[in-house]
Amino acid sequence: MTTGRRVGVGGFVLGLAMMLVAFNLRPALSTVGPLLGLIRETTGLTAGGAATLTTLPVLCLGLACALAAPVIRRLGPDLGVLTGTLLVAIGLALRGFGTLPFLFLGTAIAATGIGFANVLLPALVKRDFPNSGGSMTGLYTMTLCLGAAAGAGAAVPVERALDGWPAALAVWSIPAMLAAIAWWPYARRSGPAKPPQVGRLLRNPLAWRVTAFMGLQSSLAYILFGWLPLLLQGRGLDPLHAGLYASLVTLCQAPGALITATLAARARDQRGWIVGIPGITGLAFLVLAFGADGLRIPAACLLGFGVGGCFGLALTLIVLRAADAGTAAGLSAMAQGIGYLFAALGPLAFGLAHEATDDWGVAGLLFFGICVSAILAGLPAGRAKTVSATG
């Protein structure tokens, strides 16, 4: 992968295409939670099956990220993003068949595509926008969060309009296909690229610290994707309003990601952000889950800002800690591949804790504990150092 690529007049259009891809990297995940109760009711899906359904995409994300190096070697990063976007569209379409096997299969395929694009986009930011990495990371992370919010908020209204959850899940394949079409001209810009030497990163403590922070903060987001609507329904909200609150949380991730990524990239180091943003996230979740009803809206906004900020911060760390674009691809693959595999334990443990206690108390403490762990694990990654995996 070449470094220091200068983006010419088409840089703005390239950025728009990147944003369109980013928008489609979360509806596959955020649309299931608001409809999970209906899916269980109409298919007979058990509580264990529901926990598996919320965990499966995170596992597939991790496996796809681990395969990113062969993708870079065979296809190149640009064509790799196109391949990932097409897999997202195909997986979403398969969920429209309305049976549990196709629901699980489509979810796995879509999540695999998301994993490929997730890994490669930070490397492309490092390569194509070398002088504005923080701003571009914030912009595409913000757009990604907007896609997640659109999926969460529209899930129940679209289900009612289309008279069924299969169509409500499959309809998101249309914008994903449009994103693939928009990216098509850029998929031919470069051929196969030499992948980074991942072994160097696996022996580097800094790379592991970035990976730990990525995995822990990711588990927070996927817990909310899978379980927040049901938690709010347990507090007395109907499915529509629970979905709208989940959408508000997800919508507020956008400014959180943009502001945090942009400002953190300009800071001398990122340790203050690593303490503050996960701390805000944990406190806001406790208020939303167990606090007074009158605090529900501000807590939802603050929770969304915090979760979005955590994600934007994690991606910013990948860009800042990597010495070059090739290393950014390798560090992204390591941090997201290993990180997502461990993050998969978050929604699974959260769901099992709720199922075992028939309450949300233990599960809520688990969420807060993950926030504290993210702070402790991420602090060393906030120092202004870099790692190289090329040459």
Automatic annotation (TrEMBL):
<protein>
    <submittedName>
        <fullName>CynX/NimT family MFS transporter</fullName>
    </submittedName>
</protein>
<feature type="transmembrane region" description="Helical">
    <location>
        <begin position="137"/>
        <end position="158"/>
    </location>
</feature>
<feature type="transmembrane region" description="Helical">
    <location>
        <begin position="360"/>
        <end position="379"/>
    </location>
</feature>
<feature type="transmembrane region" description="Helical">
    <location>
        <begin position="7"/>
        <end position="25"/>
    </location>
</feature>
<keyword id="KW-1133">Transmembrane helix</keyword>
<feature type="transmembrane region" description="Helical">
    <location>
        <begin position="164"/>
        <end position="186"/>
    </location>
</feature>
<keyword id="KW-0472">Membrane</keyword>
<dbReference type="InterPro" id="IPR036259">
    <property type="entry name" value="MFS_trans_sf"/>
</dbReference>
<feature type="transmembrane region" description="Helical">
    <location>
        <begin position="206"/>
        <end position="230"/>
    </location>
</feature>
<feature type="transmembrane region" description="Helical">
    <location>
        <begin position="272"/>
        <end position="291"/>
    </location>
</feature>
<feature type="transmembrane region" description="Helical">
    <location>
        <begin position="103"/>
        <end position="125"/>
    </location>
</feature>
<feature type="transmembrane region" description="Helical">
    <location>
        <begin position="242"/>
        <end position="265"/>
    </location>
</feature>
<keyword id="KW-0812">Transmembrane</keyword>
<feature type="transmembrane region" description="Helical">
    <location>
        <begin position="79"/>
        <end position="97"/>
    </location>
</feature>
<feature type="transmembrane region" description="Helical">
    <location>
        <begin position="332"/>
        <end position="354"/>
    </location>
</feature>
<dbReference type="InterPro" id="IPR052524">
    <property type="entry name" value="MFS_Cyanate_Porter"/>
</dbReference>
<feature type="transmembrane region" description="Helical">
    <location>
        <begin position="45"/>
        <end position="72"/>
    </location>
</feature>
<feature type="transmembrane region" description="Helical">
    <location>
        <begin position="297"/>
        <end position="320"/>
    </location>
</feature>
<dbReference type="InterPro" id="IPR011701">
    <property type="entry name" value="MFS"/>
</dbReference>
<dbReference type="Pfam" id="PF07690">
    <property type="entry name" value="MFS_1"/>
</dbReference>
